[in-house]
Design goal:
Number of helices: 3
Largest sheet: 11 strands, mixed
Structural class: alpha+beta
Length: 358
């Protein structure tokens, strides 16, 4: 082998030599650094996304909860014919007897009433023990009115008119309010005849049913009704307003999703149709952990708890509502020992009752 061939072989050996151990270790370290940096950025982005999603969920729940709750508070106690109505007669069977025994969904004498954590709402199955709640009743202005009214052996009968002859939509079992400039009466429709004629009667299969056929009172200013079969027909006639009775309550309930926190803001609404009256429990906003309510009385400036209002619920003209909300995702907050690391925010709003804003 000559010198030229030997030099060529040496050069080939040099060029075909692999990486040294030190070079390989440096390359691996650099790769791990790059992978770590990319992983850190990815984890940071994921955490940022979860935080943003949690804040968005909290804000959405607060916005929806406040808008719908505030709407009911503003309308609380509304009577389409005038909120200064002295006589509001209630002929429903469940409204008879001591006021303490009247369920919130029928008790127009307590058309706006709050409950502290020691009192639970009747008819609601998923309320969280120890949480506050609020119940409100009002007459919904639907534009319907009586064309004629008669009371006899077959019950109280009246034809309903509406602007532009639009169907009134009332059905058997509906709980309604009739009113004029003299009084208002809460009753249940026992039958809807062909043509839209409403019948108010005793007995039958509707629940809770009426204690009398009459829609009137024993004497003006008494608010009392004679619960006999025929009762007192009342001062009603053409152009008497007929409205749906809205009865709602707001509370904190168990939503059955413990992985998301398990609590939501609920609305319980009276649903009276067909033969019976039921309470629909509607989930409004997820993640609402607590609802704190404080009330202001007429001619005062301070807000007080429900226990301090006593029997002066008719004098409440504003409500301070504070909602405590938690994010559905866990391990977002830096303090993972509280609420499983969920984000928490509190929002406070003051809502005035329109017909009591004096």
């Amino acid at each position: 082998m000559n010198r030229k061939t030997s030099r060529r072989l040496t050069t080939m050996v040099i060029y075909s030599r692999g990486l040294a151990l030190i070079e390989l270790m440096i390359a691996m370290v650099l790769g791990l650094v790059i992978i770590g940096a990319v992983t850190g950025i990815m984890l940071s982005n994921i955490q940022g996304f979860r935080t943003t999603r949690g804040l968005s969920q909290i804000q959405d729940s607060a916005r929806v909860g406040y808008e719908l709750l505030a709407r009911d508070i503003r309308q609380a106690g509304n009577i389409p014919c005038g909120n200064d109505m002295e006589d509001v007669v209630n002929i429903l069977n469940d409204a008879q007897g001591p006021a303490a025994d009247v369920p919130w969904q029928y008790d127009f004498n307590n058309r706006f009433i709050g409950f502290d954590g020691e009192s639970a709402l009747s008819g609601v199955s998923n309320q969280i023990a120890g949480t506050e709640s609020l119940a409100m009743l009002s007459g919904d202005t639907t534009g319907a009115f009586m064309l004629n009214y008669s009371a006899g052996s077959n019950g109280a009968n009246f034809d309903i008119g509406t602007p532009n002859n639009v169907p009134h939509g009332f059905t058997t079992g509906n709980i309604l309010m009739a009113c004029n400039e003299q009084q208002a009466t809460i009753f249940q429709v026992t039958n809807v005849n062909s043509g839209g004629n409403l019948v108010v009667n005793t007995g039958g299969s509707t629940s809770p049913g009426n204690c009398t056929k009459g829609l009137g009172i024993i004497e003006p200013g008494s608010g009392n009704q004679l619960c006999s079969t025929n009762g007192n027909p009342g001062p009603y006639g053409p152009n008497t307003v007929v409205a749906t009775l809205n009865s709602t309550a707001w509370y904190i309930g168990d939503n059955g999703r413990p992985a998301e926190g398990g609590r939501s803001l609920y609305m319980a609404r009276l649903d009276a149709s067909g033969t019976g009256a039921a309470i629909n429990q509607i989930e409004i906003a997820a993640g609402v952990n607590e609802m704190n309510l404080r009330y202001r009385l007429i001619d005062t400036s301070d807000f007080i708890d429900a226990s301090a209002v006593g029997n002066r619920w008719a004098d409440v003209n504003a409500v301070e509502v504070r909602l405590e909300l938690l994010s559905q995702d866990q391990d977002i907050s830096t303090n993972t020992s509280v609420n499983q690391g969920r984000l928490d925010r509190g929002f406070t709003s003051v809502v005035a009752i329109r017909n009591r804003s004096l």
